[in-house]
Amino acid sequence: MYWHATSPLRKPMRATGQRGATDQADGRAPDCPIAYLPTEPNAMTKAPPPWQSTPLFTQHLLLRARMGDVDGWKLSVAYGSQIEEHHAVRRDAGMFDLSHLCVADLHGPDARMMLGSLLSNDVGKLKTPGKAMYSCMLDTSGGVIDDLVVCYLGPQHYRAVLNARTAIGDIAWIRARVHEARAEVTVVPRRADCVPPGVEPLAVISVQGPRACEKVLRAIPAARHAETLKPFNSTLVREPEAGELMVARTGKTGEDGFELMVTAAHAGRIWDRLHAAGIVAAGQHAWDTLRLEAGVHRYGHDMDVHTSPLDAGLGWSVDLDSGRDFVGRAAVRARGQTQQFVGLALEGSGAVPPAHSTVTSEEGAVIGTVTSATYSPTLGFAIALARVVPGVRIGAPVKVEVYRNRIAAKVVRTPFVRGAS
Fold first, then answer.
1. Binding site: residue ranges?
2. Which residues participate in the annotated binding site for substrate?
3. Global pTM exceeds 0.85
4. Which of 35, 164, 292, 337 is deepest in the core (most CB within 10 A)?
5. Closest alpha carbon to 279 in 210, 228, 379
């Protein structure tokens, strides 16, 4: 499914990258620990066939990217130095191909009603066209089927962005609920592998970093009014050469930036223009170290269908107070919170704990497990997200099992790194 760390300090494969960027004189990338991510899909997961490619596949090859299997999709994991790509996003601007995510449009007079019954967050709060929100979608047992962003485009039109590996199952789940409710809603997936005939598939390009706005507007002058967008807002832009594209001020790196949704046929042209504007192409390895520094969850790792959103630290996205009913509400309320979600800083150590590693108190009592971890290029030591028993205080010293060794760590609040923007 994803790359694996077979040791806490692993040397990446040799790769040459964009503009020949390397960290060492002989062209090798540096010794760099990378994220360890589990491979088990959840019960709602149906992965696309192996090695699906995105509309930007040719662009990755032209930049001499190292390709890898990411949630069943052939994507760039690095173009050269993972660390340089990471720092480019923190210090300037970098871009990612996220076209393996599935954009899905929901049309119809019952669209708001159906989303209100399916999502844990209240879409009724979305009243201004372009406004977006984060939410979980739960099963009847209160487990997280997926986490997603949904955008209000009009009274009868919403757009959701679904995770790559869960998208097929998500679409089937939504359509089944629509059928049960006999609702007037049409669900239109826009990803290349599942788009209906006659509908244009969409590619997704995420541009992130303190100079992302400046450089995106340089590359796409037609999007100049997007400069005033607030976070979790979007706008539709008519671009002379690429047609209509959606510009959303969203992202998971902790930096300012835009996510661009453009028709697949024009995605390569937009990517090339962004690159010509000085935006560094970055791979999925850098994306994961960035999102972990930002304390952002990744579905299938930090939560899944067996996890309550309350235990995953996502209670803020679950509307339990308004009286609105939605799938999984009763189960979440009945189960309550049994774990707390925290950050772990392994200060002074680059040893990256594998997912599911045990977290213990200093006295040796098991208090939780790691959900995902990486080496932080910004901080210079390993960091992790974990679910632990309630009552563990911020600042508490703990031990984390890393390949039969117990490494000292400290419980911290997330994000680990606050963006420069």
1. 259
2. 259
3. yes
4. 292
5. 210
